[in-house]
Amino acid sequence: MAAVSMTVNGRSVTADIDPRTLLVQFLREDLRLTGTHVGCDTSQCGACVVHLDGKAVKACTILALQCEGAHVTTIEGLANGTELHPMQAAFREHHGLQCGFCTPGMIMTAVDLVNRKGSDVDEHTIRHELEGNLCRCTGYHNIVKAIAAGARAMAQAPLRQAAE
Amino acid sequence: MTATGIGAPVRRKEDQRFVTGTGRYVDDLNRPGQAYAYFLRSPHAHAAIRRIDKAAALASPGVLAVLTGEDLAADKIGNLICGWMIHSKDGTPMKAGPHPALAQGKVRYVGDHVAVVIAETLLQAKDAAEAIVVDYEVLPAVVDPAEAQKSQAQVHEVAPDNTVFRWHLGDKAAVDQAFARAKHITKLSLTNNRLVPNAMEPRAAIGEYDPGTDSFTLYTTSQNPHVARLVLSAFIGIAPEHKLRVIAPDVGGGFGSKIFIYAEETVCLWAARKIGRPVKWNAERTEAFLADAHGRDHVTEAEMAVDEDGRILGIRVSTIANLGAYLSTFASSVPTYLYAPLLSGPYDIPAIYCEVDGVYTNTAPVDAYRGAGRPEATFVVERLAEVTARQLGMDPAKFRKKNYIRNFPHQTPVIMTYDVGDYHASLEKALELADYKNFGKRKRESARRGKLRGIGFSSYIEACGIAPSQAVGSLGAGVGLWESAEVRVNPTGSIEVLTGSHSHGQGHETTFAQLVSDRLGVPIENITIVHGDTDKVQFGMGTYGSRSGAVGMSAIAKAIDKVIAKGKKVAAHVLEASEGDIEFKDGKFTVVGTDKSAAFGDIALQAYIAHKFSGQELEPGLKEGAFYDPTNFTFPAGVHICEVEIDPETGMTSIVNWTAVDDFGVVINPMIVEGQVHGGIAQGVGQALHERAVYDASGQLLTASYMDYQMPRAEDFPPFTVGMTVTPCPSNPLGVKGCGEAGAIAAPAAVINAITDALGHEDIAMPATPHAVWRAAQKSQMRMAAE
Ligand code: FES
Ligand code: FES
Question: If you measure CA to CA, which chain B residue comes closest to A101?
Fold first, then answer.
């Protein structure tokens, strides 16, 4: 067993874990944050995407021990209290999900994508950037729409916050 | 139409939990004291098991039990079943070999279940599984359905030539006559490639046993928890029906693969009692590839006969359908009654004959996958239609128009009575949305850039709303296919609807609430849809075959009618009028011709406090149930047009435009319906361009992960153009037809028709990978150069 500490969704956590534990297992099994999903065993599906120090990573592809001292944000930590993050709201508004299983990973990837590519990211770029996220339900059409709208809303959100 | 009523694009109620990560899928659940199951699977496609030595595994740390087929037999646990009896041409029943949840004496495909290890942790279970020593005698294997009947490998003793059935449908003599007087005959050899469903949530199960009440609970990824309970109790014999509760909570997609009752959930339940602890199993993706029921896998010879005017005279089809190593729950119905009755397509075809041989091979079981039989039929009909039109030099749209059915009801020569449709309307609208008349311009423009552009049609029909119980009973179904619902109005006027349909992405929590809100005038947020728990919902046949709207919602509509009828009785007492004078409209009970009225919520309260009527006059309460059995299938139909651009240098096919015009009858929520169309198209395009489950000759699955099995990704698609036409379905009270499978049914033929158009009439097999397309492009260029 090995000790690990990190900050998850703003809360500091410490645990004694089997060194083989993946970040996704640590989140799901130890912290009971089950919004981060596991859809494959080859790092292809993206259902497990979380933010590690502000960047999207596949939580199935990194050991929890490697995250010592890091800041992790999961889908559960994205909303501001009861107010959805603009990207979460955009997925709901544009029907960017059906069964919901790929959704947490899609949303975390989408937020990272906008952080990197800007709020006026075009459709072609969005589709390309989703190469690491599989969805079997939606045909991606509404996911792409939701991300474009979410990107614009993310640009508005800081302005709104500043105005408040 | 109100903002939340029928026809409104209401945003989904279920999304709040899914976008915040608070959905609850089976793997998110843990039961106190739970242990973990890991299955040791066969590494061989076909082998006799001489001996299993579990001593070392039993001695491994954390191991609670190692169980095999022998233990299963000792406990008299029954085999998994196939619930649809098919009879061969000669009248003999299909030959179903035994299908134990853990292998008994023999393994029949790579991934077959040899033993299960139950341990304190999953890692301990996995470690111990490696310590099990199995002495196999490897036997010859067969994987190719076209080889199965001549192979020396024999999968099951009961089926000497690996043939489960030799079935047929239609009038052979009439078809022979039609072909004898044909002006032109088109012949095609077609392969419908084998697919892996790949719902993003892998299958999972937790079995639990309570010795105090001697009862079981199963949490499972199921599209039909009541069917699972029925099979697990009546056939497999785990527990009597009233001692088994099956819960299917949030389920992450199904597409057919979660209809079936598999080995893993059976074993988790049985083992839970044996070890006295809850037992959890969650599939890894590789296990899903190995042991989820696969889809399609047909080899077909098809012919179409036409007269001098281009009218279809007949269709003749001969198919070998791979059923895998065991008959899965509904496997036998898919290549028979869900397939051949759709071979008329939307066309007026006087004579159709179809023969299907279902065969065993040493591959994973094959069963229903999105569309189930109907995509295979549509692929046959629409490839034949397209090639025939081209060979006759006719515009493919004109050829289809010429042959469309115009008058309804229409009796096809293969069982179905189409109740309503307007195929011309769908085609006209699709041609317009796809800007068909300017296709030539676009093709020339592509050619200037060195690209080959092609356009392909798929004019599909499907039979949904599965299904009238008597009809399917006469065709061999072991169950009725009605649906049940209960509408519980609370004293405060809020409502729970209990439905036998199961939502695993379809958005029932929203659309079903829209129906109730529309009919009863209750705000949508005061309505909860309850599903997926056999202790709550009385019974249900579940969700597949695009049946939740046409059958599931019709049951709810019937229950609502009963609630209104009862409400009128209550209102008569409250408003002091005779029951016949009470009318219900806009959420109010009114005495006709007066201004005396009471709101729905007030009547609900009065029904429960029961102060205005005596117990002799009326029963208190406001809760009604209904069972709805449809009178016919429904027949959604439509036209999809795919436009591709091919780079002949690389063989890359880009889908540049996609137009879908579907007629789903009355639409409850257009946003959700369009979403279903998008998803279906993506799966159909996946089949046409990317996906194929490949076994090597020895039966090893070469495509057992996302590294090797190409799933469609966002970049593979353009935005879709989706239009609709509406002919309300006369066969159910809501006029709905169903939309869940349309895209997957229509898409493969549209893509292949477009690619072959671009290449200049070369046939091409699915999936049309860049390599295959490049080779075909080379061939047509050589041919063109030679001409
Ligand atoms: S679970 Fe991490 S990529 Fe699939
Ligand atoms: S919504 Fe089901 S996998 Fe994406």
Answer: B252
